[in-house]
């Protein structure tokens, strides 16, 4: 299972202006490894950057944000035996199995069901065959999303459409995985894996300070960004080398633990291989017997949700 192609915009803040770059990251959930790590400028489309990625192996599952929404990419993945799940774009054209236009907004507004699961075609020209799954959100979550939509629209001097506000009350996905493999509820739970990449980017910014700089010179800012990103890669390697397990253990807490040992790692690396390996073993013990790498008791984590799907 691969959870991959998560592009985020890193805004490098200075005292006088802002510049932006994008980091495109492919992350393998099963091994915890970074399979692709690429920087582009802020105006490069995510779908264009995706073309430089290596093909995924047959049987993989691709999860990505809406920036990588591409019917051409979905069609290619299906043809190569790769599964994919993504949220549906609001303005995406839908057609029923008979090829007639299908208004999802009207259908959801008229139904009393909490779950919609049907086959359809997507795209005015492409007409890609896919499975559409919609699950009704709680009133609290729906209202929270609508407040966010209105606040964002106001900031942009726009008025959100009623259709957009109505669809905010639903979790809507499209996929090429049929009902014999995953139910609608299981599919929605598995998409929670994508939150791991959000935590990684949050850690890059909050712990690694990748998006901040005190310099005002572009070349120095870029040099600083590269240095900090190299540090993130080294830290992630140390996390894997000391036994960190993706989803099972807290990413940010583990990153902070390794940060506490940064001085010892640097000194032991310059001293000898034996001293460096000894420091890694010490970090591994600290990770196993401390609370840094563990989730809070009773917290409904992605790992626990996946276990509930496996053992209902």
Radius of gyration: 22 Å
The CA-CA distance between the termini, in Å, is 21 Å
Reported for the largest beta sheet, the result is: 6 strands, mixed
Strand-residue fraction?
A: 15-25%
Task: Determine the structural class based on helices, strands and strand pairing.
Answer: alpha+beta
Adjacency order of strands in the biggest sheet: 4-5-9-8-7-6
The share of residues in helices is 40-55%
Low-confidence stretches: 1-7
Keywords:
alpha+beta, disordered N terminus, six-stranded mixed sheet, three-stranded antiparallel sheet, 20% strand, globular
Question: Which helices and strands, and how do they pair?
Answer:
Layout: E1 3-13, E2 18-27, E3 34-41, H1 46-50, E4 61-63, H2 71-79, E5 83-87, E6 94-95, H3 104-110, E7 115-122, E8 128-136, H4 139-155, H5 162-167, E9 170-175, H6 184-190, H7 195-206, H8 218-241, H9 251-260, H10 262-271, H11 273-289, H12 302-310
Parallel strand pairs: 4-5
Antiparallel strand pairs: 1-2, 2-3, 5-9, 6-7, 7-8, 8-9
Helix pairs in contact: 8-9, 10-11
3D structure, described in words:
The chain is α+β, with helices and mostly antiparallel strands and 312 residues long. 43% of the residues lie in helices and 20% in strands. It has helices spanning 46-50, 71-79, 104-110, 139-155, 162-167, 184-190, 195-206, 218-241, 251-260, 262-271, 273-289, 302-310, and strands at residues 3-13, 18-27, 34-41, 61-63, 83-87, 94-95, 115-122, 128-136, 170-175. α8 (218-241) packs across α9 (251-260) and α10 runs antiparallel to α11 (273-289). The two termini are 21 Å apart.
